[in-house]
Amino acid sequence: MYTLEYKGLCKRYGKSHNVIDGLNLQIPAGKIVGILGPNGCGKSTLIKLTAGLLRQNSGEILVCGNPVSDDTNRLISYLPERTYFDSNMRVDSLMDFFDDFYDDYDRAKTKNMLRELGIDMSARLKTLSKGTKEKVQLVMVMSRNAKLYMLDEPIGGVDPASRDYILNTIVANYNPDASVIITTHLIADIEKLLDEFYFIGFGGKILRGGDADATREREGKSLDELFREDFRCLPNY
Amino acid sequence: MFAKLLKYDLTHYIKLWLVGAVSVVVFGAVGGWCHRLQPHVPEFAGDDFLRMMLGSMSVISIISIVAFMILGVVLVLMRYAKNCFSDEAYLTFTLPVKRGYYTLISVSLPPWRGGTAKHETPCPLCGYGIITIS
Question: For position B108, what pLDDT does the model report?
Answer without folding.
Answer: 64
